[in-house]
Amino acid sequence: MDRESCGDDDRGRRGDPNRYKGVGVGLLLADVRDAVDPALRDAGFLLVGRSPRWTRSPQFLDWSRPGELVSISYERSWDWVRLVAVHVSAGGDELRTIASADLHECRSTADVDAVLASFTAAIVNDAHNLRGCGAEA
After folding, report:
1. Pair 32, 61: CB distance under 8 Å
2. pLDDT in tens for each of the 137 residues of the chain?
3. Residues 6+ apart with CB under 8 A from 66
4. 61, 71 in Cβ contact below 8 A?
5. What is the C-alpha to C-alpha distance for residues 91 and 1, in angstroms, rounded to an integer?
6. Is 0.90 topped by the overall pTM?
7. What is the pLDDT of residue 46?
8. Whole-angstrom Cα distance, residue 120 to residue 32?
9. pLDDT at residue 94 in the model
10. Are 126 and 89 in contact (CB under 8 A)?
11. What is the largest CA-CA distance in the chain?
12. CB count, 10 Å around CB of 46?
């Protein structure tokens, strides 16, 4: 099989069709960021931080607006992997989990994509609810 005969989706890779396998968490967080960043920006949040690329775990993305923070982190242990999104307000006094997604039982790209779709939809929905709150703070 030569490069021209490969499908567009596999980008010339051979072997396992799971696009997240072997690439690392960077692609996973990039997909999450692409899905939620526009809604968070509309709510007045700006991307203010992320873990360095060489960090093993946990890895995170942080969005902020005055007095509030939305953080998405990738966490793993020897027997579980998950994404967690939290909203921190009132100077860190209030912490609320927006969404959590267990990835340790995903066995295919379709499984991961389904979990990510639900996870990012919850964050986008929360961002729409936050749009009117605190933007003037």
Report:
1. yes
2. 444 444 445 455 555 566 666 556 778 888 899 999 999 999 999 999 887 766 666 788 999 999 999 999 988 877 788 899 999 987 778 899 999 999 888 878 888 889 999 999 999 999 999 887 654 44
3. 134, 137
4. yes
5. 57
6. no
7. 95
8. 6
9. 87
10. no
11. 58
12. 11
Which two structure tokens, joined as six digits, stand for 77? Answer: 């242990």
Residue 51 tokens read as 């873990």
Name the token pair of 53: 């690329």
Both structure tokens of 69:
């923070």
Q: Residue 119 carries which DSSP code? A: H
Range 14-21 contact pairs with CB under 8 angstroms and sequence separation of 24 or more: 17/108, 17/109, 18/108, 18/109, 18/112, 19/109, 20/109, 20/112
Residue with tokens 């933007």: 135
